[in-house]
């Protein structure tokens, strides 16, 4: 445990030093860092209280990332500045920091998509580079293995690997698949095919299945539904609720709008429990968002009757409208629901879109 903590602590210190060297820290952040230094919490030597030091440091490192993202959203900082900051996290090893970075990366890509499709493609490639390097650092820190290919990233649990490392592998691979990294997609689909042939295969353990499912849906399209249909087969055959929700949460991310339409209709079928339907709506792809919005309007009477006016209905709607990021769409949504829901719900839905409005000033 002490060795793992020390490695993560040292890596986070290097991240902070990199940020300082590149002059990426605002004055207020530097003052906060100075206070930590004066308090002796960022000592270069490893001490018995390293767990506490690491906790303090990781909150600080995460705070820098969150603050920078918030500044970009508020137009106080350019998108280029945010991406430059993120590039300093390429060798970060901590699960909390990288998991937060993955969440932010999804948000950035969604917002960039509304600004410019070419920008979205470039940003996806940027994040692929970040997560490939992060994966290499994380998954080789306990054993000296070659991560030059995606196949190596999928290797099973290593000696002395922590639970957080196992979780991180799944999240990083899912992000790489979602951003269209070809090597990850190819390896994921190869392992999924092995899983179809043998549900007990060691090639696709539970913590990596979501990444494989996302990869399968990235390659699914109107002319080749085999991967999508195979996922539905797994869904129908499994008795595990967790596996069903894992599959449901991967389906709507397909970039083909016609497949997204099929997924949405499937979500309303008798094969999906009412309480699980919201999982099937999560992660609607940018390409499928207009289809999802039209579908929601067409099915609104049935949806309102089935889910009533409670918490699930709000989540149901938010899942469909959240991929949008423009004031025009926010106004359209608010007007549509103004006479169909309580005013408070209409305002909440409008705000959920406005938060995603493109507020970056591109350099």
Automatic annotation (TrEMBL):
Question: In the record, what terms sit under GO molecular function?
Answer: metalloaminopeptidase activity; peptide binding; zinc ion binding
Write out the GO biological process terms.
peptide catabolic process; proteolysis
What's in the GO CC field?
cytoplasm; extracellular space; membrane
Q: Where is the ERAP1-like C-terminal domain?
A: 63-355
InterPro entries per UniProt: ERAP1-like_C_dom (IPR024571), Peptidase_M1_aminopeptidases (IPR050344)
Q: Which Gene3D superfamilies match?
A: 1.25.50.20
Q: Which PANTHER family match?
A: PROTEASE M1 ZINC METALLOPROTEASE, PUROMYCIN-SENSITIVE AMINOPEPTIDASE-RELATED
Similarity comment text for this entry: Belongs to the peptidase M1 family.
Record protein name field: ERAP1-like C-terminal domain-containing protein
Source taxonomy lineage?
Eukaryota, Viridiplantae, Streptophyta, Embryophyta, Tracheophyta
């Amino acid at each position: 445990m002490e060795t793992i903590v020390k490695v993560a602590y040292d890596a986070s210190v290097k991240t902070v030093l990199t940020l300082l060297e590149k002059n990426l820290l605002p004055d207020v952040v530097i003052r906060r860092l100075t206070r930590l230094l004066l308090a002796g919490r960022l000592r270069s030597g490893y001490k018995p209280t390293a767990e506490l030091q690491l906790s303090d440091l990781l909150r600080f490192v995460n705070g820098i990332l969150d603050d920078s993202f918030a500044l970009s959203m508020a137009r106080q900082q350019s998108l280029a500045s945010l991406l430059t900051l993120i590039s300093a996290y390429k060798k970060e090893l901590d699960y909390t920091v990288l998991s937060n970075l993955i969440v932010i990366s999804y948000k950035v890509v969604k917002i960039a998509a509304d600004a410019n499709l070419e920008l979205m493609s470039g940003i996806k490639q940027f994040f692929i580079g970040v997560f490939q390097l992060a994966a290499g650092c994380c998954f080789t820190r306990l054993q000296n293995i070659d991560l030059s290919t995606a196949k190596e990233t999928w290797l099973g649990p290593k000696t002395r690997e922590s639970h957080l490392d196992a979780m991180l592998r799944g999240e990083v691979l899912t992000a790489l698949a979602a951003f269209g990294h070809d090597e990850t997609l190819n390896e994921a689909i190869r392992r999924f095919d092995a899983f179809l042939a043998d549900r007990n295969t060691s090639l696709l353990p539970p913590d990596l299945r979501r990444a494989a499912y996302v990869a399968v849906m990235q390659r699914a399209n109107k002319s080749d539904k085999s991967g999508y249909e195979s996922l539905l087969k797994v869904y129908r055959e499994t008795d595990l609720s967790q596996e069903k929700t894992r599959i449901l949460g991967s389906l709507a991310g397909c970039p083909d709008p016609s497949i997204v339409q099929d997924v949405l209709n499937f979500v309303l079928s008798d094969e999906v429990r009412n309480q699980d339907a919201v999982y099937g709506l999560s992660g609607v792809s940018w390409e499928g968002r207009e289809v999802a919005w039209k579908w929601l309007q067409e099915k609104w009477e049935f949806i309102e009757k089935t889910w009533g006016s409670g918490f699930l209905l709000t989540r149901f709607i938010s899942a469909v409208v959240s991929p949008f990021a423009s004031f025009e769409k926010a106004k359209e949504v608010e007007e549509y629901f103004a006479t169909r829901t309580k005013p408070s719900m209409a305002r909440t839905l409008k705000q959920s879109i406005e938060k995603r409005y493109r507020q970056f000033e591109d350099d």
